[in-house]
Amino acid sequence: MQILLIEDEKRVADFICRGLKAEGFFCEQANDAATGLSFLKQHQYDLLIIDRMLPDMDGLTVCQRVRKQNTDIPILFLTAVDDTQEKVAGLRAGADDYLTKPFDFDELIARIEALGRRRSAHKPDKDSLQLGPLLINVGERSVYVDGEAVDLTSLEFDLLLYLVQTDGKVVSRERIINAVWGVNTDPLTNIVDVYIRRLRKKIDRHPEQSFIETKRGVGYRFSAK
Prior knowledge:
Layout: E1 2-6, H1 10-22, E2 26-30, H2 33-42, E3 47-51, H3 59-69, E4 75-79, H4 84-93, E5 97-100, H5 105-120, E6 128-131, E7 134-137, E8 142-145, E9 148-150, H6 154-164, E10 171-172, H7 173-181, H8 191-203, E11 212-215, E12 219-222
Parallel strand pairs: 1-2, 1-3, 3-4, 4-5
Antiparallel strand pairs: 6-7, 7-8, 8-9, 10-12, 11-12
Helix pairs in contact: 6-7, 6-8
């Protein structure tokens, strides 16, 4: 599951993202509303977590803007105010659930899983992604090229799936690092380039027609041939 967290308190955001990744989720974080809304235009997410109070825009306004563009993405509100009227305002703005800080992390996971089940019940099965000769089975975490199984490590699979789910948009190395390896990874490392080379060797049948395109000075883009 791809999760976007819009939370301005870096300590809290880092804690949540680390925990979510440890549970097997993708988590990308934005520290203000403008960045979060920009990410939403560039990438498809399965769930959105919004802090009620953000430095540049009220969380209610963020929720309303998201709902105008994306009617079905589950939205979970985080708030430090345990007040019924606050919860009602958030739900009326378009949130699907509400969680008050401080919270137990197990409860956060349970609410995310519940929202995911609710959404899955209204969506067709997307466990398998057919992209030209490339077949990705998300549930089984398996990959095939021209019907032949490809042996990927867990990180290689996560990287490939992240690139596929960016819908053909160019993504920077920094965003890839944050989404796949985590926010505490050195942004100057060449780990993304190393793993891209590994992926290409495993999934490309014709090196001159790679699934993963390099945009020099910008980042990478997935393209199904």
